Amino acid sequence: MIRGLSRIVPNVVAGIWLAMGLLLVQPVSAEEKAAEKTVEKAKAEDATAASSAVSAPLVKGTLPADDPIAAVWNTAPPATFPMSPQVHWPVRILEVTVKDLIVRALHDGTNIAILLEYADPTEDPDDAAAVQFMVGDKKAHFAHGQPMLQVEGGPVNIWYWKNKTGKGVDMNAMGFGTLKVQEHQDVNAKGVYSNGRWKVVFTRPLATEHPEEDTQIATAGFINIAFAVWDGKKDPNSGELKEKGSQKAVSSWWYFRAEAPPDYSGYYYAAIAVGLAVGFQFVLIRKLKKGNSA
Fold first, then answer.
1. Integer Cα distance of 69 and 280 in angstroms
2. How far is 204 from 108, CA to CA, in rounded Å?
3. Residue 281: which pLDDT band, with cuts at 50, 70 and 90?
4. Domain of residue 287, residue span
5. What DSSP designation does 241 have?
6. Are residues 243 and 101 in the same domain?
7. Cα–Cα distance measured from residue 32 to residue 257, given in angstroms and rounded to the nearest whole number
8. Which among 157, 46, 66 has a CA at the least distance from the CA of 113?
């Protein structure tokens, strides 16, 4: 009998291990698979190629909230987006300085930091940049949430920075001519100009107490993001700014995702399975010894 059970015990243990292995391979929904593919594709894109999503990894330690040139930014995957003149609203512009924008992002579980990098031949007081999000579930056009054909329009949240002031401004809009500064300010920003390139970092809590005005950023979920840049150089003849107001470089909507913290629950299940297997084998052997002695 002991010999027979000695053959059974390893098979039982192996069966438990197999079952737990199947538990660890948890089913993934079609939406999760599609989202993961989008993020992996964005990570694989080279900084010189067009991307479709910004992925913000979770970092340990201090977030580079006020340091656009911190070394930790090299750990964030770059995403490059094309920029084009704003043509939806007068006064329009037909040519812009910034043709593409490199975006990186990081978060620490509480705050999010987004870094914009782009080429600009000159540093000017009126150089500016902005990041835009939709607010809530209502779809909005990337042009300030302006109602368009087949797009009803909705509120947008805009994070704005200008070199002259050196700070971030939290704003809202729901169509052309509706831009307004929020009474509460949750956004910080800082820009650094070097070697013909701007690096501007925006920082804000992932979640705020004003969901009706601020986009709420949940980890592991995709939201829409858009960008705008102004070259604040003055025309040497007229003295007018080259780009101002609606005269700017803009992007369409793209995707943004703050990565979720690592899920270690599978390891906990594996530890429980090992404990159960060892305990079962111990009890079984003990019973066999008692039966043999009797």
1. 57
2. 11
3. low
4. 14-29+265-294
5. B
6. yes
7. 12
8. 66
- How far separated are the first and last CA of the chain, in Å rounded? 14
By C-alpha distance, which of 274, 233, 272, 226 is closest to 252?
A: 226
- Locus of tokens 């056009």: 141
H or E element at residue 162: strand 156-162
Contact between residue 80 and residue 47 where contact means Cβ atoms under 8 Å apart? yes
Q: How far is CA 34 from the centre of its chain?
A: 16
Predicted TM-score (pTM) of this structure: 0.75
Does residue 278 have a cis peptide bond before it, meaning omega lies within 30 degrees of 0? Answer: no
Q: Residue 271: in which H helix or E strand, if any?
A: helix 265-293
Q: Is residue 8 included in any domain, yes or no?
A: no
Residue 205, domain CATH: 2.60.40.1190
Side chain identity at 100, as an amino acid letter? D
Asked if 128 and 160 count as a contact pair (C-beta separation under 8 A), the reply is yes
Please state, in angstroms and rounded to a whole number, the distance separating the CA atoms of residues 171 and 228. 14
Type and span of the H or E element at 106: strand 100-107
The per-residue pLDDT for range 121-176, each reduced to its tens digit, is 999 999 999 999 999 887 888 887 776 666 667 899 999 999 999 999 999 998 88
The Cα-based distances of 91 to 12, 40, 243, 244, 286 in angstroms read 76, 39, 10, 10, 87
